[in-house]
Fold these 4 entries.
Entry 1:
Amino acid sequence: MSRSDTAAHRLKSHDFHHRPAFDGLRAIAVYAVVLYHADVDILSGGFIGVDLFFVLSGFLVTNVVLRDLSSEDIFSIWQFYARRARRLLPAATIVVVTMSIFTLVSSPVGIRERILGDAQAGLLYFANYHFLWTNDDYFNAGPAASPFLHFWSLAIEEQFYLIFPPLMLLMTGPLLRRFGRKTLLYVPLLLCAATASVQVVLASKNPQAAYFRSDARAYQLFAGVLVAGLFYTSSGRARVLLVRSRAAEIAVILFVLGSLSVFSVSASSRGLAATFIACTLIAGLEASPASALARLLSRAPVVYLGVISYGTYLWHWPVVLVVSRYVETDAWLLAAIGALVGSALASLSYHLVEIPMRRSGKSRRWSLPTVTAGLASGVAISFLLLPWILGRIRRS
């Protein structure tokens, strides 16, 4: 038997399934960001909710791909992109078009011209570089900030997804046959270390670039890939250690502490620490799905808020901006309004748009047309509809 035929050099069965506790984590992450955007003083580090999102995304998407690859089905890159398009584009498009219409009726032409570029960058998923080039300061965003400023994080995830499926095929194909299953540890570890180094170097020279550039933030997504690889390749010994050390419970406490303003550290240092905390928290929950914390995060209301967290993230920032622009209110009340209205709009979007779109695209044979249609619609809306909305009337 050749080396490439041994069990160590083949994908093993991977029965990863939906973990409700991870939806609960999404809820924690999104509302931490809401509190930060509402400018709640004590939670000036709440932006690390995005760091948790990044690590969790890397972990979950890796497990999904490993499950697909180890099953009898053949992993399709086009199907992967089609799922992403159906999952992300419809809700994002509604937010972009709605806020463009609002900007049309509420803002003078000079602001509308600036917002047009922001909206196009958001919908075409290069908002992170766009806001870096336009010198928008994420950490000093006031009521006059762009309603699409928060799209920077969605852009980083989508840019990561461009390289992720080919990378997984490489790791589970030729590299797996050559180096064995440890490839699923070594490659993400190397990429995580490399991009974390970019983060550290940039942070000392250009903190804004360190926050917005995808090559400086990808380490968090690769950290999630690494955690997935650790569980895929490790024995039960590591799981026992995580459970006995109560890693998840300690990590969630550290996450809350990391969100507080009592620690005066840079965004880069906080993000690096948050990445380690997120990895520990995810690993602890995966190792102990029956723990008290996992059960708490798996409660139906918490899970539902996590399920709609993508829409809540999309809507809460425009809501916070609009309310703060026209009403003088307390930060906690603003956060409550942003959370309630953002979640309500997210729930409507989820049931009326996102679920129907996902159910309409189950057949694999439509994957390439779905991707093509998604790209075409994004370009058409960005360069035809949005300029028409923002420039057609009220030019004075």
Note: The chain has a mean pLDDT of 89.
Entry 2:
Amino acid sequence: MIKYLGSKRLMLPAILAAIDSLALGACPTVLDLFSGTSRVGHALKRRGSRVIACDHNSYAHTLAACYVQSDDEHIDAAHRLIDEFNALAPTGGYFTETFCVCSRFFHPKNGARVDAIRDEIERKGLEPELKAIVLTSLMEAADRVDSTTGVQMAYLKAWAPRAQNDLLLRVPDLLARPLGGKCEAHRMDAFDAARSVEADVAYIDPPYNQHSYLGNYHVWESLVRWDKPEVYGVACKRVDVRQRQSVFNSRPAFAGALTRLLSSVRSRALVVSFSDEGFITRADMESLLAMLYQGEARIRTIGTDYKRYVGAQIGIYNPRGEKVGRVGHLRNTEYLYVVTPPTMDAGTGEGTRSTRSHTTRVGTATTPSP
């Protein structure tokens, strides 16, 4: 899957174990309200859960339509299309000019391949799930030859060695339909999804600081939408990055927005991911969660220590390539909050009526490039 800030690859075992501990049955329905790369949804689907993935960004919805909603019945058709796309001659166009010449996210030889393949995908008028599969394949192929530290707010001054490699599409890891039933992917507002979807458990991984995922991954948004928007700045961001703001990227609004969201969720239990670098502290998060289930929520907090993403290791530089600041810290703690009503134990799923909050510390780990 694509490099992603806040990737849950290393946290997957803890997330899956937390959901298992709720004893919701072999094939629970799981609502993923901020699906991102769909790494969590894909893992849950593999284990038999019926997953309903939601995200408001088009690229994230496409990833969910591929990895969560689409089943392996599309594999043969995907192989044929991807073989065809890999054989196309490069053409150049908007993508090359914007992201390889005006900016340097990709080498022009690969940008020209992206232009040719993306135009052909649009020309074919594929049905939605198959289109999502090949768009995901194209995003991942481009991600393997990019020249960034993992976010698209900037690019490297000199080409990354991988940028010289030839772009090559691969068939994504499609899964069979789970025992829990057909999964779904929706491009919708998290508040609307929380009000409209019923689930056994909701997994909630909201943005935690001022940097929007649309701003961090604007290239993928433009690649999926193929609307060829006007851009601004050195990074050639879509102009609508300035308008499509999430309330969760606002420090003053965050706590109120999260409170409103959590109080709308229609699930038997919740698992919430959040970083100690986020807008609210662990203590404030636990206080907020404790108000759920008529103020009788049970909370178990699981903390994992991580090395921060590679951009933090490199440091802070100005546009001239001069180091201009100091990174405050090189490690952070990612928390999982397991939240249940008073009749369900937050640790084992066994019935209980007392209220408590405690922490389980899960070693240390190193985050991948985001």
Note: Residues 349-370 have pLDDT under 50 and may be disordered.
Entry 3:
Amino acid sequence: MLRRTTRLLWVLTFLFAVKALADNDTKVLPGHPERGIQTFTAKNCAKCHSIWGVGGTLGPDLPEAIRGRDFYQIIGLLWNHSPRMLSRMAQEGIQTQEIKRDEMKHLIAFLYYLDFFDPPGNYERGETLFRSKSCVRCHSLGKNESKVGPSLDKFGLMISPVFLGTDLWNHWPGMTVVFKIKQLKRPIFDKTDLADILAYIRGESIDETENRKYLEPGNPDKGKTIFEAKKCNQCHAVFGKGGDRAPDLGIAQLSKNTTEIIGILWNHLDKMEKMYQELGIRLPKFEPQEMADLLTYLYFIGFYDENGDIARGQVIYQEKGCMTCHSAPGEEGKLAPDLANAGLDFESFDFAARIWNHTQKMGVVFEESLIAWPMFRDDEMRDLIFYLKSQSETKKTE
């Protein structure tokens, strides 16, 4: 119950505090999550789908369904399940509503942002990790033992794991000294390790609910500024823009939940500190809100993947039977227009909106023509969109 309550508190904080994002013309954030919440409710999505168990039960819990998927993969899921969703909505008497381009933009931004929040940690596993990672050798928890490091009870009152991430980063130099003195191996954190350790900390620490500390969700635009101000771009590039001493973060992609990103930063802190030293720069310090902004920026870098395979997209266009209904260049008499000449903005959410709004009509055609509904796996939707986009651009230059 404690783990579920803690998570919901952070989510509720997000739902209200994220309104600040709506006032910014964010370049990285493709839409405003706060407006996406409104669309999610207004378009009756909540009548079928839940968010971490809160909402409808007819469809899957959305944070789990979209976990680890980027923009184009989410569109693929929308296409794959649209006929089933519309059919079930009709059975349940739920009104189907058209979704406009901007509404789709904000809705997908909201859904994508959900994966940034951590799943509930495992208390029992966290206790094991707290000991096996040697945290217990330096830190006390739930009691006032004399230890080398400070008590970790305070993190039981901090709803966001960003507080822990900030302390791990800022105290890195001091901790490395202690590791050497006590001959401790530096712990490496994998996937859910930090989320599980936090679950244990929250379960064992003093429960003073009136003193809980909250943190506003990060702003990716501010995070980009911090990324540059802290000289991260001296070593890391983002899609080729920046330094080349460390991996390109546009390629590496950190579209993972918060504690996973924090764990990755911690695991590489020794290398990053060395690179800073080689540049004649001291390892920078962060305020919690700065860290929140930076992590959000790193997370949203992977929203778009600019590496669609055009040649593969052409094959998919043929294999999925798109040409059965859609005209090829110069053709007439088909059931639907040439997609490359339909005025679609393939780099926006126009394509996703039209998929939803035309599903019912397409479903009727497919059923009458005995055509199986094509399904898109992995990166197939991305490759198809890039192929259509390339064809559209070619026509614009003709």
Note: The first strand starts at residue 50 and ends at 51.
Entry 4:
Amino acid sequence: MKIAVMGAGGVGGFYGARMARAGEDVTFIARGPHLAALRESGMRVESPHIGDFHLPQVRATDDPAQVGPADLVWMTVKGYDLESGARAILPLIGEDTVVIPLLNGVEVAEDIGAVVGMEHMMGGIVQVSSAIAEPGLIRHALMDRLVFGELGGGSSARGQAILAMMHKADIPAELSEEIQVEVWKKFLFLDGVAGLSSLTRKTLGPVLGDPDTRALLAGCMREVEALARKKGVALEDNTVEELLQFAATRPPEMKPSMLLDLERGRKIELDTFQGTTVRLGKELGVPTPINEFIYTALKLHAAGTA
């Protein structure tokens, strides 16, 4: 399978390297020092869970036009690069190309599909803690869950083919018949965790440990839950409680990527999370006061300082 990975960072690099190791025809679309390192010495992965490995040679470029149409495109850019990224992958799109986004947000597939055509789109989520430790090196810390599926629900031959390829690469992927539920559950969790951790500049443990910030987190999640139900997404009745329990099983020192970016003076995905929640709330007539407060408190930091 000819595969293009748009964004070779913590997510794209981690999964793309595993597919390349299994013999798939993978090209990484990268930039800067990371791209230079991939061209010079390949891709290294360090993981206490799947083991360390090194691919001495990988295909890598900063120009998707050099790749040509692919069978599968993994979209793993940051939310604030989504619009430019969608335009950039147009040379990768052939008649039967499938595009699967693995980035934060609940409307990313639709946003990409508006550029490349919705017929090419599937939905996807990933739950993993991995990052570029240095150019050419992906370091994986914990979690390894990737779920994808048809946006309209059900199964498909193309989904089964992608699933078989990923299992061959020892990636424990799941093919969901209700990917919208998975997408909204992840968004519900991250909107609250990323928002409250970034607002308080605290890791997950202290946010959950204080009754007041825990209550704010739960309230933030319930606002997103109300949006999902308004849009007809079939979340289970105990979704918020389930996700709060899941949060309690995470390491207390866990920092969501938005807090890490905030601390480093980088752009943050505020519009991906609170910005989207507030906008949808206004469109659907659903109050989102906690998310509005978080958005207001953080919006002056959205563009970063670095």
Note: The chain has a mean pLDDT of 97.
